[in-house]
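lol so apparently i was supposed to do this last week
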Amino acid sequence: MTKAATLGQLKESGYRSRPVRIELRDNLLTKVRRGEGVFTGIVGYDETVVPAVENAILAGHDIIFLGERGQAKSRIMRDLTKLLDPEIPAMAGCEINDDPFDPICSACRAQIAEHADETPIVWLTPEDRYAEKLATPDISVADLIGEVDPIKVAEGRYLSDELTIHYGLIPRVNRGIFAINELPDLAERIQVALLNLLEERDIQIRGYKIRLPLDIMLCASANPEDYTNRGRIITPLKDRFGAQIRTHYPTTTDEEVDIMVQEAKPLDVGVPVHFPKYMKEIVAELTHQARRSPQVNQRSGVSVRLSICNFETVGASAVKRSVRLAESEAVPRISDLEAVAASTLGKIEVEALEEGREIDILTKLIRQAVFAVFQRELRGEAFSELIQRFDDEGLVVEAAAIIGSEEFCRQFGDLKGMARAMEKLEAGESPATTAAALEFICEGLHLGKRLNKTPTAAGARYGR
Ligand SMILES: [Zn+2]
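anyway here it is w/ zinc ion bound
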């Protein structure tokens, strides 16, 4: 069946329009019946955030998401478009997506009066019906809702005629979803205008009262402290949100790793990258340590993006080494962690008292992360034979991001007594994975106060 192109054909097809909330609810129920998930790819929310969002949709509520930065709030809001119909009909040329069966703008009503069943219609996709905006104090009513065009008014157009309006973002997603990030940053008088629009369905612009009975599902996000802070949000707007849903960071480093691996952009330059599991865990653990650190400002939070960017940076450092030394694979190791300063310092805010000590704090967090993973992964390994060689044979190990894998491994000679540890670390046979495992062991022993570590020009030296 071909899609209707005119109002007449649409009528004939038996199509029925639904308000956006009913459409979301019906489509969610269809997915529930089929046992399909809506928010696929959002790790760690299955038992917490997802059920709450589903209930809110079924109840037809507007939703406010409260959470610190980097908790996938925008992503969930964007994912709601998956619950919209693949296509819905709208009046052709209408800026506010008018329903052909019930247009609200006078231009569309005039069109139908003139062309009747020949009135052309178009089909809108979910993307056409979603908009999001980051709230800032300088957003105006004109940006969000609209502006009366003074020239057209001067031309003598009928004042309440919608033709004199430049529509803002919200009317343009009429019959869709509007998402606003960091809602408390919206000036109070804009909050009032937003509320009027949604509740009263009419709005004063430059003294003209304009009726705009929009059909919008509203979503918003906010930092919990800003939101609960007295006076940042006008109470009736708070009341408008039927559902207040608290988001959170991944509770385990495993979840953090899953998100990181899923979201990171692969560095595809022809060199295979093998990221050891313990190195992934270290990157994720670093973020978890930062989220617990009293020296890091926890009010704004430590985003999952920290893990993602650090994962990418550490990978890049390893790729650079393998390209420079013409090695066949890139395997991140401890020396590569030095590179995370660039991807970390802009993403964590240290407490005011600690300003200027960012590098020291980061170094401490990295050490805590490495040691935590070392203790988890290599529990029960004593490394007595290795320690003995440092003691008896005066073994010295130079480590640096620029040292080649084979060269690094050669310093150890044989790996007697380390087979089980190497197996736990899935070091395999390759020089690069072996070098990474050996450096991790040296660093772990150092952090456990069993080896000394002295900084060198390029990296560090492990010895006794
Ligand atoms: Zn219209």
